[in-house]
Amino acid sequence: MKVSPEAAYRFLLDWEKVVRLSPYWEVKAYRVIQSGVRSQESEVGKIPPFPPLAKGGERGFAGVVEVEVEHYRDGRQETLKFTLEEAVSPERIRWAVAGGARRQITFSLKEETGGVRIVQEEELESPQEDEAAHRRGEAELIFWLRSLREYLRLHERSTLWTRAFRWIMDRYWIPMSPSQRKVSILVIKITIAEFVIFLGIVLAFVLAGAW
């Protein structure tokens, strides 16, 4: 990806965006258990992101957060506790997760020519789970990482258009549930189709009048 490792690192510390961008659950509520001083580098919403660990005078954010999620597939609700265990800027971020199928989530950032490559790894709570559960977890991981990647693409350039689109994403899109996003996409597609049909009708009348 054509973003700097530092920009990707700061984004992945923002627990709200990372968790909400999962297409498989909706964040119903959250509770900050351990908080720190808000960094001047972050301009993200009202909910504090995860911190870099307080080492060497490094300023931090909310370090432990409980998040109530509802799974989109089956309506199951869980309370997940995220604890930032490791944050090595701008190379690696590791979260411990309690309360769900995942025990640990690690993001590794590797600098490449003109950008960064992000590797996401997960450790499941029960290694003895059936094969179907593992396949489902792998599919969820792929689509979750894809959502993160598509959001990060908005940081590849800093134009008026990308800044405006990031503001729309942060303000309206990310707080939506997965079902609300699907409905919104459908409405946008219908609106575009109606506009194209309208232009076609207008063009037909203009051409008919020209004859």
Q: What Rg, in angstroms, do the CA atoms define?
A: 21 Å
What percentage of the residues does DSSP assign to strands (E)?
25-35%
Largest sheet: 6 strands, antiparallel
The CATH level-2 architecture of the largest domain is identified as 2-Layer Sandwich
Number of strands: 6
Across the major sheet, the strand order is 1-2-3-4-5-6
How many domain units?
2
User: Count of helical segments?
Assistant: 5
Would you state the CATH class of the largest domain?
Alpha Beta
Can you tell me the overall shape?
Answer: globular
| Category by helix and strand content | alpha+beta
CATH superfamily of the largest domain: START domain
- Per the CATH scheme, the topology name of the largest domain is Alpha-D-Glucose-1,6-Bisphosphate, Chain A, domain 4
List the main descriptive attributes of the protein structure presented here.
5 helices; Alpha-D-Glucose-1,6-Bisphosphate, Chain A, domain 4; 2 domains; 6 strands; 27% strand; 211 residues; alpha+beta
Topology record:
Layout lengths: L4 H8 L2 H6 L4 E10 L29 E8 L5 E12 L3 E7 L3 E11 L2 E10 L6 H22 L7 H14 L4 H33 L1
Antiparallel strand pairs: 1-2, 2-3, 3-4, 4-5, 5-6
Please explain how this structure is put together.
It is a single chain. With 211 residues, the chain is α+β, with helices and mostly antiparallel strands. It has two domains: 5-175, Alpha-D-Glucose-1,6-Bisphosphate, Chain A, domain 4, CATH 3.30.530; 177-211. 39% of the residues lie in helices and 27% in strands. Strands 1-2-3-4-5-6 form a six-stranded antiparallel β-sheet, with helices on one face. A hairpin with a 3-residue loop joins strand 4 and strand 5. The chain starts with a helix and ends with a helix. Residues 36-61 have low confidence and may be disordered.
